[in-house]
Amino acid sequence: MSDRGELQTISHDPSNALFVSEFTDLPTVQEQLSSVMGRVLVRATPMTPTVTVERKPAGKDVVFLLDGSEDTRSAFRAMRDFVQRVVETLSVDDNKDRVSVVQYSRDPAVQFYLNTYTTKGEILDTVRGLSHKGGRPLNTGAALQYLRDNVFTALPEAGARRAFHRFWRKEGVPQVLVLLSGGRSFDRVNEPASALKQMGVQIFAIGSRKSDRGELQTLSHDPSNALFVSEFTDLPTVEQQLQSSVEAVVTDVTPESPTVPVDTVKKDIVFLLDGSDGTRRGFPAMRDFVERAVEKLNVGQNKDRVSVVQYSRDAEVNFYLNTYATKEDIVDSVRGLKHRGGTPLNTGAALQYLRDNVFTASAGSRRQEGVPQVLVLLSGGRSFDRVNEPASALKQMGVQIFAIGSRMSDRGELQTYPMTPVMLYLLERKPAGKDVVFLLDGSEDTRSAFRAMRDFVQRVVETLSVDDNKDRVSVVQYSRDPAVQFYLNTYTTKGEILDTVRRLSHKGGRPLNTGAALQYLRDNVFTASAGSRRKEGVPQVLVLLSGGRSFDRVNEPASALKQMGVQIFAIGSRRSDRGELQTLSHDPSNALFVSEFTDLPTVEQQLQSSVEAVVTDVTPESPTVPVDTVKKDIVFLLDGSDGTRRGFPAMRDFVERAVEKLNVGQNKDRVSVVQYSRDAEVNFYLNTYATKEDIVDSVRGLKHRGGTPLNTGAALQYLRDNVFTASAGSRRQEGVPQVLVLLSGGRSFDRVNEPASALKQMGVQIFAIGSRMSDRGELQTISHDPSNALFVSEFTDLPTVQEQLSSVMGRVLVRATPMTPTVTVERKPAGKDVVFLLDGSEDTRSAFRAMRDFVQRVVETLSVDDNKDRVSVVQYSRDPAVQFYLNTYTTKGEILDTVRGLSHKGGRPLNTGAALQYLRDNVFTASAGSRRKEGVPQVLVLLSGGRSFDRVNEPASALKQMGVQIFAIGSRRSDRGELQTISHDPSNALFVSEFTDLPTVEQQLQSSVEAVVTDVTPESPNCTCRDAEVNFYLNTYATKEDIVDSVRGLKHRGGTPLNTGAALQYLRDNVFTASAGSRRQEGVPQVLVLLSGGRSFDRVNEPASALKQMGVQIFAIGSRMSDRGELQTISHDPSNALFVSEFTDLPTVQEQLSSVMGRVLVRATPMTPTVTVDTVKKDIVFLLDGSDGHKERLPCHA
Question: Which among 841, 1135, 823, 1180 has a CA at the least distance from the CA of 1032?
């Protein structure tokens, strides 16, 4: 169903939005549309008038963006000196001008923000100390986008003083960007540059002889603002010219349309047609509608002009305004239009595309000649992205927009995440033990301080109870990426932990990605397989030592850890970002600071006390307690964005009247008020005021916050983490009902489902009140019950729902939401979710038809029509493209029709790993129709015709851990070992000579898929699959020639640390198995030859012992860097451990190894059945140390 509010918002006037039940009813509005279009006039939207600004304005925000790529290394000093000289001319000390400097190459790095320094001296000192960044490629587009989102913003950490109004006001300080670029950008610059200009940023670009003149002229606000020098050492020659331009800068906000006489005789008309999957059936009616509309126009070069554009994920021009000059040509072209297809429906991006590429003089638009500009939009669903800003930009250009919608919609975009129940763990105040993870900043900036950090960890570990298995410890170091030193289950004694900590060496590297490290901990360390006892109710503690500001975002991953119940304590030095660490911590008081890390002993006692008192906090956090219905904690969340400026006094009065009816007091009702737009801001907490009078006085004094966009999701998350907490006055854990009243006047820019669900799981009762501009579905989703969402036409009508709200709030009760129970799935389940992942790269172009036919035949065997089975199809090459999701179609006929119409994607290289990761994050999800959490088996059928260009192990493992059963089918060009690794079991990998032979494996696949059962948990909790990588299995090759060819092609893997124990465990679970070709149960001797060049980082005793019990004969060969005792322990007999000085000496032990292996016998173990031993044949596995320490010596292994 089209979103009425959205189309009315897009239209120039709400009355310009017309609606039909089906697009086949379009003729009923044809006359109505023609009538309005016949009298359309361009309304006054003149280009920004020339603003007279004094030669010395009140101030400016000046950002320097410096090319720090490899190509400017020799020129960087000249660039730095240039910045110094320009800064010398600015008025910084009296707070008129502000300065920021950003360097970039592949990605940007802020040297300092606009509000970092307040004196010219500080700025000049920092600029003098700037060092060249280095790196490739040069991504100017990404840097400009970064400036837009992170530097030219009024957020406290950035300091821009840009006016956040549609048009500049007196308080709007001019925004200036000075770009020095020494080469052509590797990525696109048009869109991010355009976005900055729309914000009113004046862009000046300076390039050298290697720069792209056209690119810099396009970037600049005016081509004359692009200056050029032969070399950057010549920068002084353009300084005066730049200074004059910057001094005269005036704000320049679109709209750009000049004031011109209006010509009402002719029009430029653009038809924008929804070509997404949701309009496939309605498209012929849309096409006929356009044809009839064109028939009524007076087409000609100097009369009416017409353009047609189709869109789904992105926009595609069928023809421009100046493509055809006769009605006949246009009609012929319209009749030949074919439905485009695709998802999602990005109406906002399409409108932006029209603005930048169609309503332009080069595309035939005569806007600047005063010819009326008309857009007719036919949309059959709700937009996946935001439409307000691009629609507003078109209107400001003077485009009259008419929108026509139907009741049909894209099902996948309107369905919401179901709430997942979560079990409550009731834990004592002082639990028996803790899982403690230390996350240490190992970047270049902490090199001198690392010893102090290491000693600190030792002292804290000394206070823990490790030896009696109460406390467990893990240590992780990070810079650009994290490196686990040891897991929670690696060591079981305090002595082992302390020995390892003493030996820790500094990691090094840049930049500092704290966010990525936190995410890694969530996915890989605070997990059962890594030793975490979170699900057993053991408190989870993270101690972070960080010596600088994170380069990436930390809020989301920190919030995710908190939702898991991890208590985060952060310790920073004087270079750390205090706000960042306070945000990271579970409570701001959990963030501690020292001047230098050598002062860590001064905060040890404080940390120890806090950690000792920690209690588990697992989502949902609400304990089972008696409900006190006499008192309530009520939080009002008010939309303070630009869109509610007029309605805010009415919202304020509403809150005041609601408070008047409450029984306020410390032991009665408590109240908090929070305003939000881009981010949330607390006006007062639940424990700020204890009397009704104080609250009412504060409410009366509330001022509208302003700002865009409206991030309701972020605000809800903020409430969860910072307001509905004990430290902020929430009495949730005492059983006091928690109530949230949301007043929202628009559609959220970000996602609301997850944070709303998290609040509900905590037991918060959510009531939402919206106006006519709100999104009804969104507010009903947010509310605890759809009936809790109330609506008024305008916020001035709030009194009409006041009584209704008070009545419901009076009887509110906290509801319990237990954790998901164990789901028992029968061997033959009621249904399956089946995803086909098709290799659409250039190498499968000729075979694609056979692949498509194969999918059709498999779908024919499924039970789709009775909603048992669901189907999705994804194509991929360099990146994946969803053809349709699991919830897009509900009938077999629709699926088969779409599959028949699939066209080959094309492209290179083949990134199977990226495609698998994409499926995990975007397809096997509730919002995309996956029923995994309901216990429905998840099946992936991969058809791949070549070897992947990227790594597949990790994403394949992640899918398996989710319970996805993977079946892979390859052709003769495929990599057998790769597909066997990807598959859930090596026997699930099938092969054909050519894809035209697919029918020969159909029955085999169908039988396997029919028998599939859900497998939600990882296969073995101790398997660290991420560390070992199979090059080929025992049953991959059948001839010596194939094996030798494969061995010759081996490439060094690289990586740290060396986890021999995890690798041995992996062999036990995944290689010495019948499905992987092992013939152990047939009595064939099993042999493992290990080549290891260093000491294992993890424990080896248990996994080595497990292999020996299976009857595996282990031979180990080490170099002088190896641990002799370790390899002798791993070997079946100490005499089976051989040693060489260097791996180049391996030939000296080759004969000795062959001799011993020749007489090997299988020994009886508890797990091995009594069998006749076959000494003629053997199964031999080579396990090679591929760590960083042996990159140069791998060829000798082979």
Answer: 1180
Let me know: does 1090 contact 1116? Beta carbons within 8 Å: yes
Burial of 618 (0-12, 13-18, 19+ CB in 10 A): buried
Mean pLDDT lowest among 102-111, 502-511, 654-663, 998-1007:
998-1007
CA distance 505 to 450: 8
Spatial contact of 640 and 648, defined as CB atoms under 8 Å apart: yes
Query: DSSP letters of 228-293?
Result: E-SSGGGTHHHHHHHHHHHHT-----S--PPP-----S--EEEEEEE-SGGGTTTHHHHHHHHHHH
Nearest to 478 by CA among 457, 450, 436: 450
DSSP 8-class letter at 828? S
d(CA 586, CA 594) in angstroms, rounded, equals 19
Q: What is the pLDDT of residue 339?
A: 92
Q: Which residue in this structure is represented by tokens 């002595």?
A: 495
> Residue 304 carries which DSSP code?
B
Give the type of residue at 282: G
Facing residues of 977 across strands? none
How far apart (Å, rounded) are the C-alpha atoms in residues 306 and 313?
Answer: 23
Phi/psi of residue 709, nearest 5 degrees: -85, -175
Give me the DSSP letters along 209-220. TTS-HHHHHHHS
Q: Determine contact, residues 366/258, Cβ cutoff 8 Å.
A: no
105 pLDDT higher than 90 = yes
Is the separation of the CB atoms in 1110 and 1086 below 8 Å? yes
Strand partners, 790: 769
Per the structure block, which two tokens stand in for 375?
């857009």
> Which residue type is seen at 546?
S
Which tens digit of pLDDT belongs to each residue from 439-486?
A: 999 999 999 999 999 999 999 999 888 988 889 999 999 998 899 999
pLDDT-derived band at 672, boundaries 50, 70, 90? very high
Averaged over 773-778, what is the pLDDT? Answer: 88
Question: What tokens were used for 50?
Answer: 């020339």
The Cα 217–Cα 220 span in angstroms is 5
CB proximity list for 1021: less than 8 A, separation 6 or greater: 528, 529
Decide: helix, strand or coil at residue 611: helix
Specify the residue for token string 């300065």.
99
Residues 476, 439 contacting (CB under 8 angstroms) = yes
Query: How far from the centroid of its chain's Cα atoms is residue 559's Cα?
Result: 14
How far apart CA 872 and CA 343 sit, in angstroms, is 12
Residue 143 CA to residue 105 CA, distance in Å, equals 8
Distances, alpha carbon 480 to alpha carbons 322, 509, 793, in Å: 51, 6, 51
Please list the residues that pair with 22 across neighbouring strands: none
Confidence of residue 318 (pLDDT cuts 50, 70, 90): very high
CB crowding 367-391: b at 16 or more within 10 Å, else e? beebbbbbbbbbbbbbbbbbbbebb
Instruction: List pLDDT tens digits, range 942-969.
Output: 999 999 988 888 889 889 988 899 999 9
**3-class DSSP state for residue 173?**
coil
Rounded CA-CA distance 807/1159 in Å is 86
CA of residue 355 relative to chain centroid, distance: 28
Question: If you count them, how many residues does the chain have?
Answer: 1198
Sorted by sequence, the CB contacts under 8 Å of residue 835 that are 6+ apart come out as 871, 872, 873, 874, 886, 919, 923, 924, 938, 939, 940, 941
Cis peptide before 1021 (omega within 30 of 0): no
Q: Where is 543: in which H helix or E strand?
A: strand 540-546
Q: Which two tokens stand for residue 747?
A: 């559609």
Place of tokens 């605890």: 784
Q: What is the pTM of this model?
A: 0.29
Per the listing, tokens 């006016």 go with 163
Do the bridges between strand 680-684 and strand 670-676 make them parallel or antiparallel, or are there none, so unpaired?
antiparallel
Give residue 1001's pLDDT. Answer: 85
Written as one string, the DSSP assignment of 546-577 is E-S--SS--HHHHHHHHHTTEEEEEEE-TTS-
